[in-house]
Write a structure and sequence with these properties.
The protein is an alpha/beta fold and about 240 residues long. It is built from seven helices and nine strands, in the order αααβαβαββαβββαββ. It has one domain: 3-Layer(aba) Sandwich (Rossmann fold). Strands 3-2-1-4-5-9-8 form a seven-stranded mixed beta sheet. Strands 6-7 form a two-stranded antiparallel ribbon. Strand 6 and strand 7 form a beta hairpin. The chain is globular. The termini are far apart.
Length: about 240
């Protein structure tokens, strides 16, 4: 193969790679939607690597907020969490449930049933490129368990926290539970960005104060352990 043919072959290969590999935000979001939809479609709920039969750590922090039963609670990246069931049992009636995967939310809807449909709003949206959640306002509680660490790049994290700050009201609360610095570097086949409480405080800025934090060892359905850091913040400015 002479140099000219080699060059033409290289150009063709690069063009094919360019077509296959996502090189813009829309393509990346589409691929992530596909990833999470496949995950929730193929995996039994009880075998998901983040499944909790009882979300006790989250409930402990939520109870410390002393919210009214009609307070607006936004559960981001909810998946098929049991937390929604528990909040309904406790009488909360203004719950907003978000996930990037429509399949996850459909499964959660089926489990909860129609009797509680008036208490919940369902929003399929991307936290790092929001077109729906960014229209919300006066959120009393932002709750995130095991979502933030999937936003691996600085750009994604900036979009996440910009959205959070735009919707959480003054004197509202933020609960973030994420992989701690000693935890795994991947989850569900994706790289993760690990945090500690100081890193989260920096991301939130001085308008939010840390009320409580603790470390938690989560045991996966497989028996493996994952270290989480739980944080409760309050917006004061």
């Amino acid at each position: 193969m002479d140099n000219k043919v080699k060059l033409q072959y290289k150009i063709i290969v690069l063009r094919k790679k360019h077509i296959v590999m996502p090189n813009n935000k829309h393509a990346m979001e589409k691929n992530l939607k596909l990833h999470w939809n496949k995950t929730y479609e193929k995996t039994e709920i009880e075998k998901l690597g983040w499944y909790e039969d009882s979300p006790e750590p989250s409930l402990r922090l939520i109870n410390k907020c002393k919210l009214d039963k009609n307070a607006s609670i936004l559960n981001v990246g909810a998946g098929v969490t049991m937390l929604v069931d528990k909040l309904i049992e406790q009488g909360y009636n203004n719950i907003i449930v978000n996930d990037l995967s429509s399949i996850a939310l459909d499964k959660l809807k089926m489990r909860i049933g129609n009797n509680n449909s008036n208490s919940i709003r369902w929003i399929v949206d991307d936290l790092s490129n929001s077109t729906k959640l960014n229209k919300l306002e006066n959120i009393d509680l932002w709750h995130d368990r095991a979502v933030l660490h999937f936003f691996y790049t600085e750009k994604e994290q900036m979009a996440y926290f910009k959205l959070l700050k735009s919707v959480v009201k003054l004197n509202g609360f933020v609960i973030i539970s994420t992989f701690s610095l000693n935890s795994a570097t991947k989850c569900s086949g994706l790289p993760v960005h690990r945090f500690n409480k100081e890193m989260l405080q920096i991301k939130l800025g001085n308008r939010f104060i840390l009320l409580e934090t603790f470390n938690h060892i989560y045991t996966m359905p497989s028996g493996d352990k994952r270290e989480y850091v739980y944080t409760l913040f309050k917006r004061t400015q």
